């Protein structure tokens, strides 16, 4: 309990495959490696990736690292659930076969497109560093409300490295027709092919509401489902795509490696956002134009009635007065149109990320100097007095 008295703001919120995660601030968590040899090796691999990240401008689609040392990694606190949990909470399953029978709710199409692009941009960022994530699956994609970011880089390695992670349907073993990609029956080598395939399956999950073959009973024995799914994917047998044609085309191209690079995919997914933006701008323009016409017409009619009233009542101000009154309406139209043309929101300044880092980094360094990482590494959470508190700041 001494650690909690000394650091009352620290809470144990998660236990991952290779590390324990503690909240140290409402916006910051720290990952502490577990004591096993394998866990320590994987943690060291992740440290190497964060070292590479630290030498490059931050990517807004990747969970940000504020500070790291051999004993811990301080990260941006994504305060909601993983993509996996977000999707699964909308499932109704057959309790015997566990296949998904109903998807209670789909995310809005605009948000799904945004998520597709965010994932592509994150993977393309890694590709630009000659890296492949190696474990692209929904459990490694975190949410903060509707913001989506890629996390967990302990399987990330240089392109061309042997592909060891990620099970079906986000990874697939090679068949006999793919000898150029590696030995049949293996996952092959990390590169655009492996990342694109995983992204295609993630896009399927996001848009169809369940995993590839998640709505089908592939075998009578539920325990044989996994091997059967692996076999189907190895043979490139995919479920029918009958959703949004533009999205289906992207999924199909990812599965069949029709993009040369992940960057090419990222350029394509960005057009999905441009289409939405263009449509919104067109609708807004039509709306604004309609409002301008309506307002100017109203102003014109009011002034016209006022002028006619004065003429009828014998209060003739002459033609000069009539023209002045009419001109006011036209000048109002010009002024309103000018204001309408300036009514646009600004995009978020990406430099904001960098500006925030210095204060967050200092906060984390101070915690290390005070001995927090040493104390958290001294034992498992329960042994050093912590109780599991889930995500205390989880957003509802």
UniProtKB/TrEMBL annotation:
SMART domains tied to this protein: S_TKc (SM00220)
A GO molecular function held by the record: ATP binding
Database matches in Pfam families: Pkinase (PF00069)
SUPFAM superfamilies the record matches: Protein kinase-like (PK-like)
PROSITE patterns documented for this protein: PROTEIN_KINASE_DOM
Domain Protein kinase residues, every copy: 7-296
Signal peptide positions (record): none
Superkingdom of origin: Eukaryota
Name of the protein in question: Protein kinase domain-containing protein
């Amino acid at each position: 309990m001494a650690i909690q008295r000394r650091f009352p703001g620290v809470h144990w919120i998660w236990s991952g495959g290779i590390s324990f995660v503690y909240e140290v601030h409402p916006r910051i968590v720290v990952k502490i490696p577990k004591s096993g040899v394998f866990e320590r090796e994987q943690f060291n691999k992740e440290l190497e990736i964060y070292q590479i990240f630290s030498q490059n401008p931050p990517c807004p689609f990747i969970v940000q690292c504020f500070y790291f040392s051999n004993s811990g990694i301080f990260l941006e606190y994504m305060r909601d659930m993983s993509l996996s949990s977000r999707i699964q909470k909308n499932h109704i399953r057959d309790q015997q076969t566990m296949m998904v029978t109903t998807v209670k709710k789909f995310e809005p199409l605009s948000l799904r497109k945004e998520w597709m692009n965010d994932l592509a941009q994150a993977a393309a960022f890694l590709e630009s560093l000659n890296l492949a994530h190696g474990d692209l699956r929904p459990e490694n994609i975190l949410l903060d409300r509707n913001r989506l970011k890629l996390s967990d880089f302990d399987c990330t390695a240089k392109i061309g490295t042997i592909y060891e992670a990620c099970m079906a349907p986000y990874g697939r073993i090679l068949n006999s027709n793919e000898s150029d990609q590696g030995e049949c029956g293996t996952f092959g080598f990390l590169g655009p092919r492996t990342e694109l395939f995983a992204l295609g399956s993630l896009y399927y999950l996001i848009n169809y509401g369940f995993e590839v073959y998640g709505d089908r009973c592939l075998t009578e024995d539920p325990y044989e489902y996994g091997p059967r799914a692996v076999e189907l994917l190895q043979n490139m047998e995919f479920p029918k795509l009958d959703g949004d044609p533009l999205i289906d085309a992207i999924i199909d191209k990812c599965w069949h490696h029709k993009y040369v690079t992940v960057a090419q995919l990222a350029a394509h997914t960005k057009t999905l956002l441009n289409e939405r933006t263009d449509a919104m701008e067109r609708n807004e323009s039509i709306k604004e134009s309609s409002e301008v016409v309506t307002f100017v017409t109203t102003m014109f009619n009011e002034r016209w009635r006022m002028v006619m009233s004065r003429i009828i009542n014998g209060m003739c101000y002459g033609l000069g007065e009539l023209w002045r009154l009419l001109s006011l309406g036209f000048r109002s139209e010009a002024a309103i149109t000018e204001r309408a043309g300036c009514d646009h929101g600004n995009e978020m300044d990406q430099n904001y990320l960098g500006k925030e880092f210095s204060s967050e980094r200092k906060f984390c360094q101070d915690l290390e100097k005070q001995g927090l990482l040493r104390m958290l590494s001294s034992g498992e959470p329960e042994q050093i007095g912590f109780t599991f508190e889930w995500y205390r700041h989880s957003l509802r």
